[in-house]
Amino acid sequence: MALHHCRSGEVARLGALDDPATATAALARTPSFEAVHLVVRAGDSIAPHHVAGSMTLYCIAGHARLGGDAPAELRAGDWLFLDPGTPHAVEAVADTSLLLTILFDESAAG
Q: Among candidates 24, 25, 109, 102, which has minimal Cα distance to 56?
């Protein structure tokens, strides 16, 4: 089953974190860009990994810890940038809503 990605101009409702039905959702993907509404519930984690492109995480709500080469704590309103290939993991201290963006850099494509 293919994931739904928004078309240009399409509005996506991310959903409130206090709604148990709100879950991670792919938002958009092009050859050079990807956006995901990442929902990580308290106590859950995302195993260590890396992505090929430059990456940002914006914490919409909640509290998450990042592990790996760039340990950090993210709370509502915090924004983080990671260089391509930076190993990281995510652990939710509280229910957390993140906006993940990835830019597939030309330098990382080779």
A: 102
Calculate Rg over the CA atoms of the chain.
14
94 assigned to some structural domain: yes
User: Residues 74, 64: contact at Cβ < 8 Å?
Assistant: yes
55 within 8 A of 100, measured Cβ to Cβ: yes
In contact, 50 and 90? CB cutoff 8 Å: no
User: Rounded CA gap, 10 and 40, in Å?
Assistant: 25
Which CATH number does the domain housing residue 56 bear? 2.60.120.10
Tokens (6 digits) for 20: 């148990």
**Contact criterion met (CB below 8 Å) for 5 and 29:** yes
Give 81-97 pLDDT, tens digit per residue: 999 999 999 999 999 99
Q: Which of 19, 25, 17 is nearest to 96 (CA)?
A: 17
pTM above 0.85, yes or no: yes
Q: Write down the pLDDT at residue 2.
A: 55
For the chain, how many structural domains are there in total? 1
